[in-house]
C-alpha cells in the first residue's frame, strides 16, 4: 500500500491549489486531467520503458562528459591552484582532469554553467533550440488546449533559464492575460535550466548517485504540472491572443556565431558568480541562524540542539509523507524541501549529494530529487519580477501581484511531479 500513499499527496496538492483558486467555477477539468496524464506518461516512459530509460541514462553520461569538457577550459584558468584529491594528496587542479579528481564546487560549477550557456546560445543562434521548443509546445498545446504563449514558455523553461524562457514569448508578454502570465511564471519556477541541471547531475555523480535521468524527468514533468496547478489557482477568464496556436517569432539577437559564444560566456560567468555569491551568503547566514537557534534551544533544554533543519523537518513532514517518501527518509526529505523553498535548490542539492541530509532509499531519492528540482524559492521570485519586468515594463505591477502565487504554483507543481513519480516507482 505504501506505493499508493502518493495518491494522498496528489489529492492534497490539488486541494491546496483549489483552496487558493480565484474562480473555482471556471476550472477546466479537461486541462487538469490531460496535464496529470501527460505528467504520468513522461514518468512511465522514463521509469518503466527500457529503451527510453537507457536513452536518458546515456544522456546523463553525456552530461558528465560536458563537465569534463568544461574542465579543460577551467584547467587553463585554475591550473596553478592546488586542491586536495580523494586520497588526501595535494595536486594542481590542472592535473586532476583525469584520475583522482574531487568535485571542487566553485571551479566545476563555473566551468559547467559557462559551457552550457555557450552551447545553448549556439543552438539558439542557428535556430535549433527554437525548433525543438516549438515542436514540443505544439504537442502540449494540442493535448492540454492551453494557449500558444504559455505552452512555449513552459516548454522552454525545461531547457533554458527563467528569464530566457520569457524572451521566447517577448512579443506576446504585453498582451498576455493574467492567467497566462501566472502560468508562464509558474513554469519557470517549477522547471530548471539546462546548465544548472547538469551541475546537479554532476554533483550527484561525484556522490555515486545517478541523478541525471531523475532530473531530466523532473524538469519535463514540471512543464505540464505547472500549467495544471496555475490553471486551478487562476483559471482563464479572458480571451488569449494566442489561443489555439503556437507561433515562435524569436530571432537570434546575436550578429554571428562568435558574437553568440562571447555573449553567452559572459552571461554564463555572471550566472555562475551569482550562484556562488548566493550560496556563500545563504550558507553563512544559515550558520549564524543555527548558532542563534542552538543557544536559544539550550536555554530551555541543554540537551536540545535546535536548528533550521530541525524546524524544516517538522514543518514539511506532512508533505514528505503525503508524497509517498518511505518512513526512513521522511524527516530528511522534509528538511530538504524546506531548504529548497526557503533558501534555494542549490543548498538542498548540496545537502543531498554530500549526505549532510541523507536519503537512504531509492524511492525516497526519486521523490526528493523530483520535488526539489526547480527554481521555486523566494529569491527567484524577485529575479523573475526584475527579469520579465525588463522585457515588458508595463506588466511589472501584474508580475509583482502574481509573484507569491507563482511561487505557490511552482512549488506545488514540483511536489505533484514527486508524488506521481513515487506512485510509479
Question: Can you give keywords for this protein?
Answer:
CNT_C_dom; CNT_N_dom; cell membrane; transmembrane helix; mainly alpha; CNT family concentrative nucleoside transporter
Task: Please tell me about this protein's structure.
- The chain has a two-stranded antiparallel ribbon with strand order 1-2.
- Strand 1 and strand 2 form a beta hairpin.
- It has one domain.
- It contains 19 helices and 2 strands.
- The model has no long low-confidence stretch (mean pLDDT 84).
- The longest helix has 44 residues.
- The chain is mainly α and 425 residues long.
- Pfam families: Gate, Nucleos_tra2_C, Nucleos_tra2_N.
- One of its GO terms (molecular function) is nucleoside transmembrane transporter activity.
- It is a multi-pass membrane protein.
List the helices and strands and how they pair.
Layout: H1 5-19, H2 29-48, H3 50-78, E1 82-84, E2 90-92, H4 105-125, H5 128-144, H6 148-157, H7 162-167, H8 170-173, H9 178-190, H10 194-206, H11 212-233, H12 257-300, H13 308-315, H14 317-322, H15 330-342, H16 345-353, H17 362-372, H18 378-391, H19 396-424
Antiparallel strand pairs: 1-2
Main location: membrane
Domain Concentrative nucleoside transporter N-terminal: 8-80
Keywords: Cell membrane, Membrane, Transmembrane, Transmembrane helix
